[in-house]
């Protein structure tokens, strides 16, 4: 009863753990959907704004480049008008000032003529006439006699500076042409305002499309959430369909695998509790029957009394053996068991173990053979490994035929040592070979009870080998024999 309650508590604890895992996963999925939308919305907004800003910048730069070329050409053409005069004064007397004002009015360009003393000789806006100009571009043109055109991003002006020559080709002045680009900037601001409205419309449409897209993309995720919610509610038979895009299929496979293993664990534990109850109940029932038989009979002969008491002692011994093996299994639990690891000579260990089992083999006239291919020293728990070898060899003797044989061999490579236990016994049916390491599983229950087996020996063997990070395999044919092969690392490394 104690074991049964303990296993129920363990199963309930594991279910609670799984429920918490599923709850956390559901919360994560919900948060992930929100994060998906937020991140996608930010990316879409940035992409739309960046695209518009990029096109606006490229368009504005192309317009500025064209306008710079226009202003520069106008400046060169106006400067060429002075090539027909001897100097600035002659050009002024010929009405050049009026022509400059006409050019300025028609093209909305301010024109200034700067003499070689950096004084403004003419200004179509009449504000700088007679003043000294301080302008790096004018200085550069005076020195290099080259034309240059720049755009001032702060003021929004385009300025072209070009040399002026007289009729003899002498450099006599510098022409400065300025185009006030403020109006064009205002035009761009109006365009930007309209573009902002378009941006809002496009972003809104994209976000609506994103919501619709996420709705369809996350439909499989919502289906997973619903199934997990059902599992959380106790419907442990629910499974996720293996369809949808790759990630969904991977999640479905992992989830279904977890649920299958969880159900197998529950079934295994339930079966184990049932087997424990049955195995412990059987000797008690026998003891009760024997005791009641003695109590209901009068004048029981001493011989019968002694026989019944001997049977009761036998059943008590059997009960004690089952309890002892159960306690051994508990101690062998992979998560709690501790090993006393030492360096052991495996050849000597096998020889001593077989020597102790030789009398049992002689009772059935079974030949017990040992073959060692090389000296082997391994880091193992000597007591527990002795239990493994004893159990395997003792089973090979018990389930053998009269006048049969048991062959034990030891070998090793640079990493593992290998022990094989072969016999000429009755063999194990193929359908039972995958179950023989389960607790309380017996191939032939009647014969196991006759030989004193509890059905826990091979489960203990497997647990001990797993504790040593080893493996064990079985190959058997009915009426031919059985071979157990175990592989264990020579050097024990504790897993953190």
Automatic annotation (TrEMBL):
Residues 275-492 form the Histidine kinase domain. SMART domains: HAMP, HATPase_c, HisKA. One of its GO terms (molecular function) is phosphoprotein phosphatase activity. Its EC number is 2.7.13.3. It catalyses: ATP + protein L-histidine = ADP + protein N-phospho-L-histidine. InterPro entries: BphY/WalK/GraS-like, HAMP_dom, HATPase_C_sf, HATPase_dom, His_kinase_dom, HisK_dim/P_dom, HisK_dim/P_sf, Sensor-like_sf. Keywords: Cell membrane, Kinase, Membrane, Phosphoprotein, Transferase, Transmembrane, Transmembrane helix, Two-component regulatory system. One of its GO terms (biological process) is cellular response to phosphate starvation. The chain crosses the membrane at residues 32-52, 198-217. The keyword Cell wall biogenesis/degradation does not apply. It comes from the Bacteria. It is a multi-pass membrane protein. Residues 215-267 form the HAMP domain. It is found in: Cell membrane. GO terms for cellular component: plasma membrane. This is histidine kinase.
